[in-house]
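Fold Annotation — chain and its backbone

Encoding — discrete vocabulary of local shapes
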Amino acid sequence: MLDLDAVEESPVWLEVNDEPAVTWMCTPEQLDELVVGWLHGEGYIETISDILRMRPCTSELGFWVDVASERYNAVENAERRRVLASGCGAVTTILGSMSALPRRRSAPPTIELAQMRVLFKDLFSRGTRYKETGGVHAAALTDGEALLYHAEDIGRHNAVDKVIGACLLDKRNPENLVLLVTGRISGELAFKAARARIALVATPSVPSTIAVDICRATGMGLVGRAVSGQPQIHRS
């Protein structure tokens, strides 16, 4: 039998207010960040102070989280459908809720192409798991000058949740920061970014049509083929 490189993948469960919420198939690191970022993306919290209690399970990979009952009920009572998203793994999408996403009050920042390449070079250079296996995704939040938060995961959406969660755990508002992702920008990923009031999302790959629609509806900037000679820039 050949020795093959493999990407670590583990199930991690979450219960919110004593009810099963989600089980991720993910890279088992930065799990606090994953939990917090996912809770924000789903609408259970706005800031870290909205988490009343968060406890890890000591016998397996899992978490219990308590949030205010009114927040929990608002999310659970919303019209929701579980969708097999175009990204890695099954995710929950709130369909028909694009109009509820916050609209940006200011124009997205402009980052010169040369600086975008520098930021992506830094993003790829930090990818220890990518260097080992070539089989993971990465995401980062930046102020346009330097990378502030970085994460790798087998799933693109998980990596995005991790960097947003890291920002919230740092008691910092992700609004007006720039999100860099190594894979394509799906509708679900764009929804998470817009929910966090991210100013601009960029990828060396391309966005989906739904991601472009979300960008136009919310005023979030979107850049595809960001490190090529002909980037695709989408604005509202």
The radius of gyration is 17 Å. The first helix runs from residue 31 to 42. The domain at 113-234 is CATH 3.40.140.10 (Cytidine Deaminase; domain 2).
